Amino acid sequence: MPTERLRIMREQGQRHSHVVGRGPGVITPDGCAVELWAALPPGGIPVIIAPALPANARILDLGAGAGRLTHPLTAAGHHVTAVDESAEMLSRIHQAETICSTIESLRLDRKFDVVLLASHLVNVPDTTERNGLLATCRHHVAEDGVVLIQRFTRRWVQEASGPRYLGAGIKSETTVEPKNSAGCDLVSVVARYSIGDQHWEQEYITRLLDDSDLSIDLNRARLKLDRWLSEDGRWVVAKPERSPSE
Questions:
Q1: Among 24, 60, 93, 194, which has the minimal tally of Cβ within 10 Å of its Cβ?
Q2: Kind and range of the H or E run holding 198
Q3: What's the CATH code of the domain at 72?
Q4: Which DSSP category does 39 fall into?
Q5: Residue 46 and residue 236: Cα distance in Å, rounded?
Q6: 245 in a domain, yes or no?
Q7: DSSP at 182
Q8: Is 164 part of any domain?
Q9: How many CA atoms lie within 13 A of 119 on its CB side?
């Protein structure tokens, strides 16, 4: 069950009330430890998303954190604009444009070949918040561009619990507890991380999104589910839909 702290945060209407983080150093409003995320390698994500990226793409990395994906994307020759609400996170990014902003409030006067919404941000439990994230994606994607979304699925719930080695000396231990609430597939997650003698914990509530659920939310934002990028369905491609007036 969610901790008392998470319950109080939700009742007080705090931003990111579905998540809380603990540990040394700066913890961002969404519960992420800056030192941890600055050290966390991208893993296999660059290889997964590479087939959806045109050469020298203009990419908007939403919720970029400390540059976990921004850095390999710029190294591959893409032009990345990294957005995060944490100035501490953005200070770790180099060789890319950075913008300190919440995702929902971001409204730039330019379009991008690729809009990237990683880190399972789309699984936020609140539908209004999810609508805001996807509206920002739609606003910034070019009409012939793509939105790349990373999500939690039912298969992830079955496989996520247990220890992992994430590279760069980072160990993790995840506990996942499914909860069905008001017709929604909600999941309680506790993720513990360590680098040597440093330890962090992130606890959050997330909502699973099947293709049908995600399609409903995408359609509301005038986007459409196009295809999976990964066999497990966790990475998907969405494309913009034109309105009748366009």
A1: 24
A2: strand 198-207
A3: 3.40.50.150
A4: H
A5: 14
A6: no
A7: T
A8: yes
A9: 20
Residues spanned by the domain of 108: 34-153+209-240
Provide, for the chain, the percentages of residues in helix, strand and coil under a 3-state DSSP scheme, each rounded to the nearest 5.
25, 35, 35
Partners of 228 in the beta sheet?
Answer: 236
Chunk the chain into consecutive blocks of 10 residues (it has 246) and report each block's average pLDDT, rounded to whole numbers.
47 62 94 96 97 98 98 98 97 97 97 98 95 98 98 92 97 90 78 98 94 97 97 97 66
pLDDT at 12: 36
Cβ atoms < 10 Å from Cβ of 221: 21
Together in a domain, 100 and 219: yes
Q: Which residues make beta-bridge pairs with 188?
A: 177, 205
pLDDT score for 242: 78
CB 112 within 8 A of CB 142: yes
Please give the Cα distance from 64 to 47 (Å, whole number): 17
CB 243 within 8 A of CB 229: no
25's tokens = 């150093």
- The CA dihedral of 194, 4, 122, 70, to the nearest 10 degrees, is -30
Closest CA to 206 of 70, 44, 6: 6
